Amino acid sequence: MKQIYVHGLGQTSDSWTKTIDILQTTDYSLCPNLPDLVHSKEVTYDNLYAAFSDYCNQYDEPIDLCGLSLGGVLALNYAIQYPKKSSLLGAYRHTI
Predict the structure, then answer these.
(1) Buried b (16+ CB within 10 A) or exposed e, 23-34
(2) CA pseudo-torsion sign 28, 78, 34, 67
């Protein structure tokens, strides 16, 4: 089962590197870089969510999602739309 870690606004996929190393899940962990998913489209939530959904839907098996901030919102939205596809969900936000 793939584990997909989704970063927040102003972060990159590298934000999850230490976490994945500590969890020792590098063999099945994925960290998409959100700006890369939308390619040349206008960066809106709708475009980003559509691209994120396409990214997740490329995997046939259920996926685990863990998101931080904007990544958490994307993960929650995906889990609501595809409840049978996502088996574990963690969504986090931080405050300053």
Answers:
(1) eeeeeebbbbeb
(2) negative
Burial zone of 78 (CB within 10 Å; 0-12 exposed, 13-18 middle, 19+ buried): buried
- Say whether pLDDT at 92 is over 80: no
Q: Which residues pair with 88 in a beta bridge?
A: 64
Among the listed residues 90, 87, 85, 56, the one whose alpha carbon sits nearest the alpha carbon of residue 72: 90
Coil, helix or strand for 86?
strand
60/95 Cα distance (integer angstroms): 35
Residue 96 has pLDDT above 50, yes or no: no
Helices 70-81 and 45-57 pack at an angle, to 10 degrees, of 60
